[in-house]
Write a structure and sequence with these properties.
The protein is 34% helix and 22% strand. It has 378 residues and is α/β, with parallel strands linked by helices. The longest helix has 18 residues. The protein is globular, with a radius of gyration of 22 Å.
């Protein structure tokens, strides 16, 4: 079962005497975009902004997204499929957080099925602002046959705009779209207008990758940390365009959205008009609970608890859900519940809000916190 789109998109029917040129303009168009980057760079938040719906679970903690998820955006005859991916990790992190192989190979597998790679980079980190992580660069070097764009996120946290321009120069090796960036110490470079960026995208559309080979991920997983020291970490010269956005506030997202729509090529849609995401409702519900546990529980507690979906019942206007959260010991149960039930009440409230927005129903939600087989009543 897939999540259905709940907002009508208002598609128009074509008349039988429409001209051939108009008919061609209304042919279905499709673009698949893999969003990759380091953990907590804002990938899921960006996709939620792009589709104007909270479908990708988010939290302030790293590694909230642990599996790839496809999310669909529609505009008239164009479908853009965004692939949300886990943050790029290494073997040390795999062992620390007990990640599955799918977590490690997810970004690469997503790119195999994408037309464009969107690399999101956290510009708020002063130490790493001017450097792409070598693991990201390594992935990009494996897929030089794909168009790639650089998305600088959290620009609202940077007061000195000159810092943004310097970061672009380092991260792109002063090359964008195969052409050098004119950067001087005394003069700010000329900014491309929206229509210029979209015109460049339209001109390159015919060169987009159209392959569909499968990806096993085994070889990349075995060699995920090998030769990383050989990768130049400062930047990558293969980006076609650069965007500066704030995924949190939505600043700059409309231009990015228009860019993706412009890049779409004539092709059959991957999903029907009603589909919003390929993640089944119950699975998405459990992901949302996990994200709220990460958001509101302290230290390593959310990584030790085991959430479960114990009951699910829905009708046309109401959804009833019961979750279970198993803890390692009684002390952890008390922490999850919080003083006077503060933590669990806050988590329940936030999960209900998310469910209401996604499922568009009255939500009746309960969370039971237990240790071993002993149940703790709230």
């Amino acid at each position: 079962m897939l999540i259905l789109r709940l907002i009508s998109r208002g598609f128009c029917r074509l008349s039988t005497n429409i001209r051939s040129t108009e008919l061609a303009q209304n042919e279905p168009r499709l673009l698949k975009v893999a969003i990759i980057g380091m953990p907590n760079a804002g990938k899921s938040t960006l996709i939620n902004q792009l589709i104007e719906s909270e479908v990708c679970p988010v939290s302030k903690r790293v590694h909230t997204t642990r599996q790839s998820q496809k999310v669909v955006y529609l505009r008239q005859n164009t479908q853009v499929v965004f692939i949300d991916t886990p943050g790029v990790v290494n073997k040390k992190e795999v062992k620390k957080f007990q990640f599955s192989d799918d977590f490690v190979t997810g970004p690469r597998a997503a790119i195999e099925n994408a037309d464009i790679i969107g690399v999101i980079h956290d510009i708020s980190n002063r130490i790493l602002r001017h450097k792409l992580d070598p693991r990201v660069v390594k992935v990009l070097n494996q897929f030089t046959n794909r168009d790639a764009i650089l998305i600088l996120n959290k620009v609202d946290t940077v007061k000195a705009k000159r810092s943004l321009l310097d970061a672009v120069r380092y991260l792109t090796k002063s090359t964008v779209g195969g052409e050098p960036i004119a950067m001087t110490h005394n003069k700010r470079p000329k900014q491309l207008k929206m229509e210029d960026i979209l015109a460049r995208a339209e001109a390159r559309k015919s060169n987009l990758f159209t392959g569909s080979q499968e990806y096993s991920g085994k070889e990349d997983y075995r060699n995920i940390d090998e030769n990383e020291s050989d990768v130049e970490i400062n930047g990558w010269a293969g980006f076609n365009d650069v965007f500066m956005i704030s995924a949190l506030t939505g600043d700059g997202v409309d231009l990015l959205k228009n860019y993706f729509v412009t890049n779409a090529k004539m092709a059959a849609w991957e999903f029907s008009e009603e589909i919003l995401t390929d993640c089944p409702p119950m699975e998405l519900a459990l992901k949302i609970l996990k994200s709220k546990l990460l958001e509101y529980l302290p230290e390593e507690i959310p990584y030790t608890v085991v959430p479960s979906l114990d009951f699910w019942d829905e009708d046309s206007d109401k959804l009833r859900v019961v979750f279970g959260v198993k803890c390692q010991n009684e002390r952890f149960v008390k922490i999850v519940i919080g003083q006077g039930g503060h933590n669990i009440n806050q988590i329940t409230l936030q999960v209900e809000k998310s469910f209401t927005r996604i499922f568009q129903k009255v939500i009746d939600l309960h969370i039971k916190v237990t240790v071993a087989e002993k149940e703790k009543k709230l």
